[in-house]
């Protein structure tokens, strides 16, 4: 059984927004999107779709070719190029299955993200002056933020040095500038304005960003910055070390694993200069407050459920253990050491979705109790009271070449 949140339908204009191909701007102008109109009707569910968790019925087919993300109560996902269209599309879809807006760009602008612009959920999408039709490479790239409810642009075009690398609004080159050398330029943008964030020190590098708070690393310490004000929120040199770490000099860095940190919960790796001991701890991104000391764990995977006020941590003890903590108090809520490992793929509105021994399961986030198990498709995204899950590949399907229609069907479930 799933815990459900309430949601309110958002009135949207009949017209939607589409981003024209990244080329085509006048010389000297920054690349920027252009609006056009699209239909918004929901597609019916695939006849192959079985019932979902808690016997929920398939409601509609999502227009996505890859795992979607969510912002507010909107699903956002990619549509790969088709035979008759070389552009990549990114669209926002309501819980009812209506396409509220879409953007089109060349495949060089594949990266996109979600953020919060002064309380408004937003999608951040790249544009460039590349042109896939004649092989012209991008010389200018911009980031643009759109209100996920109607596609209205909130800020941009903001020049960036490269792709959206993440986590959060961090942009740059994905590979080192020279073999064995330092990485290329990286820039963090402020979620409020799209303006570059000034690092707290000259050699500080952007590591992580979430909804207006950024984390920078420099000389064995990490510093959190309010990206709107540019002020320092906290520094690892001035917050208490995890209880199991001990005393003495410290070297602190963001754990180098993308799944280790999630939303406003970051995993920091604490080590002594002589490396005699190490500890991984979860901290509140905004304040630096310790949430949980995980001990010497190098591969945690965190999932945050703000409605439940909990963070679920898997990947512990070589993926044999899962623990859940109250975000506010740090108290351990439950622990799972079952010989049949539990794998969590999504947490939403108090329910964790995943698999155990090949069967789909739902787990109560606050208690760890199994709510149901079965053979339904495992959800990968959720908004309001709707879950989206991929169907198994068709028997005739081959490896995906990132072409429209080659990926799995993504089906929306709900009562």
TrEMBL record:
Start and end residues of each stretch annotated as Disordered: 30-66, 392-415
Stretches assigned to the Pyrrolo-quinoline quinone repeat domain: 219-372
Keywords, ordered alphabetically: Signal
Designated name of the protein: Outer membrane protein assembly factor BamB, contains PQQ-like beta-propeller repeat
A Pfam family: PQQ_2
Organism: Prauserella marina
InterPro entries recorded: PQQ_rpt_dom, Quinoprotein_ADH-like_sf, WD40/YVTN_repeat-like_dom_sf
UniProt signal peptide: 1-20
Extent of Pro residues compositional bias: 32-50
